[in-house]
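$ fold --in a.seq
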Amino acid sequence: MRLTANLLNVFDHVISYAEIEIEDKRIVNVTILGAEKVGAPYVMPGFVDAHVHIESSMLTPAQFARLAVVHGTVATVSDPHEIGNVLGVKGVEYMIEDGKRVPFKFCFGAPSCVPATTFETAGATISVKEVRQLLALKEIGYLAEMMNFPGVLHEDPEVMMKIQWAKAFNKPVDGHAPGLRGEVAKKYIEAGISTDHECFTYEEALDKLQLGLDYILIREGSAAKNFEALILLMADYPTRLMFCSDDKHPDNLVAGHINQLVKRALAKGHKLFDVLRVACLNPALHYRLPVGLLREGDPADFIVVDNLEDFNVLETYINGQKVAERGVSFLPDLRSPMVNQFDCQPCQSADLAVEAPAEHVRLKVIEALDGQLITNALEFPARIVNGTIVPDVENDILKIVVVNRYHPAPVAVGFIKNFGLKEGAIASSVAHDSHNIIAVGCDDESMVRAINLVIEAKGGVSAIQDDKTAFLLALPIAGLMSDEDGYEVARQYTAIDDFVKKILKSSLTSPFMTLSFMALLVIPSLKMSDLGIFDGQSFNFAKYYFEN
């Protein structure tokens, strides 16, 4: 195969009109024909998502790849700790094997924190010994995000052993340290941490770079959006940045991927080769990915775009195989085996009831923030009816609950603001990181119906308006994913997302993604565990009300 186009050399920062010869999945010859040719298409390395949880797309790896290649993505650095928290090492192995069914280049990590904390109930544990066994696999390219930064700072023996095993196998260690600054951030970095994707301010990211962190990842997912805050770093640190999505729902993946961040960075005036270094080169080099970068002898992985203004992806190639053209994916629509762990009984309204401890109660309320994973802690007077604390819909104080999906247990109840629902309820078995069932609603009856729809399907996201109106997107693979056609899953997700925003009146950009992070205890301030309300500042449980 021969291809003639304007070639972008990401190493020498040169654009030349060239002929590329491909044989046996590799580039065997690059012939420079002259200077950049006006009107000719442009060929460049494919994009890499430097940190993503495939499970958050609600799609299997094979289906994720089918959608991503359309946007010029040829590889991902994928942390499988979502399914790891449900099924342990078997879940990680499931992701690896499913990914092998397509030519897409997945680099999976060994989950470092399963369970994420001791303050929640997960479906599995991945021990130090199992982390070592995973790191020994050629399919495992790194130690996935070390969320237990307190364990690093206090030199917890198990935490440090996992990091040491990664070093022994010469594999990078990903970080996760939201808000960490100064000397404590320095100690975290010096333990061997090479990246962080949790910075939500320019100052925090700059601090970590100046303290010696190898790379800051600029994240733009469905819920956490840090591009605008961090993109200014590209002017001075193009060699130490990467782009990532972290968690991206299927509708957003249909709309675009890393290509969107490339276009936005260029629109802000950043240099073309700086942007491509961040989108293509840095992750390939840091994680030693088997991804071609348009050199002779490299795997034939590249994309063709129409021009350097619109950046529309015309074709995507992986190992010399054309996998997408003009918005159409050529990867097969594959079904995958069903794996799961789901053992809980339907709920009743009485399970969610909260008896008022006094005649007047001040609630400790979680404040969800649109576009962020962090929350605030607020104080509001409780609305009490017949001795029971109920949601105050008029003031947007709704009830939030977590139901243990691994074994029968009492329901954990709290209160939350900023979901904006005017009626009904939503529920999901995607609840980072232990993936119990989480729900928010305006009344107990609606919440019970939404929860029970998820339980009946053994995983999914649901929305309830009244006795007659209900939506369910089933996620039967680990309660996290569907193996159905990714475009159909995206269509169904768009329908339920629109219903929640337009009919139930949620004010959030991505209500289900935000809901899923309300159980992520390693991100402050207040979150919900299946064991109760958790204070991420004190790293301990809290009551749902303030005592006088």
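$ fold --in b.seq
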Amino acid sequence: MRFTISTRKIFLGVSSAALIGATPALADDHGKKMTTAELNKMSAMQSAPTDISGNSVLQPWTGPYDGVPAWDKIQVSDFPAAFQATMDKVKAEVVAIRDNPAPATFENFTLPMELAGNDANELFAIWGVHSSNLSNEEIRKIQGEWLPKVSAFFDALTLDPKLLEKTKTVYDNRETAGLDPQQLRLVERNYEQLVRNGALLEGADKEKLIALNTELSKAFNDFSNKVLADEETYIYLTDEADLAGLPASFVASIKAAAEAQGKPGWALKNTRSVMQPFLQNSTRRDLREKVYNAYINRGDNGGENDTNATIAKILKIRADRAKLLGFKTHAHYRMADTMAKDPDAAMELMMKVWPAAVARVKEEVADMQAVADAEGAGITIAPWDYRFYAEKVRKAKYDLDAAEIKPYFKLDNMVDAMFDAAGKLYGMTFTENTGSVPVFDPEVRTFEVKRGDKLVGLFYLDNYAREGKRSGAWMTTYRSQHDLGGKNRYVLASNNNNFVKGGDGQPTLISLDDASTLFHEFGHALHYLNYDITYPGLAGTPRDFVEYPSQVNENWLLTRYILDNYAKHADTGEPMPQALVDKINKSKTFNEGFSTVEYLSSAIVDMKLHNRETPVTDPDAFERETLAEIGMPKEIVMRHRLPQFNHLFSSDAYSAGYYSYLWSETMDADTWAAFEEAGSPWDAETAERFRSVILSTGNETDRAEAYREFRGRDPEVKYILKKRGFPVPGE
């Protein structure tokens, strides 16, 4: 879990994996620009002296790009003292602002609160890498002990009645204070979010909220550790017959995994990056079933790592908190500051897509069953067969084999491709550093980022799976852009993937799906690298918007330019032949039933789980009953079953929010239609309008209004149906 502390986060008192950024020069009530010296003086006056001598975590960031984390010098044992010292400093900063005897104004209250908490930002950037990329027993122990304390600290700070009083004073006087539109939006959002998160509570209710959030942080930590423990288990293969059907590159990687543990044979780690290619290629149905069951039952084995009781506890706390805060359900609480606004709006969109997706799955299963019958397999398609027989159908329908594609998707080439695409679209360049920037693992790469001649910042790329690294893929920032007082902060952005490194010195080859993930996460990075906003509190976007820029970026992967220039065979270096490019393009909507149902079932279950006043006490039963109710095909399992659904239960981040991928993809498909209407995926005018209206503006305006400014209207659902190859009603 990563804490991101800005003014907004201090106000909210929440822990979050959300990303922040900030801003151009600030004006006082008379329009006078504040100088850097004045801002620095204000910041210095806020800060209480803190003894950081000898603490590796709290050392100032030095070196290039106005300072970078000294990952190579961090001592994990220094984190507890760093947490305490940072909380003391943040409290001193906020109390100094709070206790200013002058009547609260934008200049003497809102502005300095925007400047508060930078030490906490840096601390939790470093902590986030250790807890997500470098986790071990010592880190997990510190996390279990300290994150509840940190949660309680920021809750208490948030709920300080004096802060509420000053925030309300600025809010009440906003119409006569001469604020510009951004300042007005900041003031309104600060007050509304403060109230939404319990600032109006008093006495026992306030103490109860702090207790609930503290218990919730403990439960999140418990859930994460249990899932991670199950993901760090292995299935070991010792007979070469067990490798039947597996590509040589994959065999080399799992052999290297076994050797790293001093084990004979081959090691299959219980993660998606191993499960997916195994199920897709292995001709051993018994082993496919074994690998599949180990993967889908993470957190659901009845042992010490079983998460069902933890989930029930989280759901109870969330329901109690929502009621305490005046919301009907946790879903209503979480969605109050989203584009959808209401659970019914999210469900309406999902149910527009669900029937077509289920219908397509029935067609896909029929095609697979026909292949199995023709081969005399004597089976009925089961979940562990889906990926395997889908590849057979792909080959039969499109003469396209995933094994034929993979040699053309060399990871290093795809990294170069995503950088080139950013250059063509936004004028950005990425130049690799050679040893001048500390990294937290020898395989992490760093790149200097420019847009034109302007230095933007630094991009960290952590591509490979390793022990202690959580599964999946994600983007984060260690430092976000702002321009307070005329000095721009350089962005430190990071992409984190879990690709299986090639073994025996072979290049790392990734699947088409993995390449899409690479472009997706890079889309998040491009969003934050293009920020040009004024206030940190107007940085992070609503949950159902934040996936939109990343999903748009996936579209450029399969453009002719990228395939022609970067999809080159790992052995021969020859570009992908046109015939294969044509096959890929023809098969773009292949298996979309599976992809949509796998994801959408998870999103629907999430919403139904949280859009209820009485919390679920038996997650397994609820999952089964809900899937039966919506007609879940028996041949598919949810992309994330509840017992391992980190998006929902390792933080609040995506709870009642997993629908956001579909909401964002609706905008994504509509945006791609804009490029198509312009006549080229590289249309300069459309790309610049997307960058300047969508990417660079953070949350400075309502995101629905921003989309309408970009597109000239609201997004249309028909484009996502077309993108997935589903029928469009009325067409």
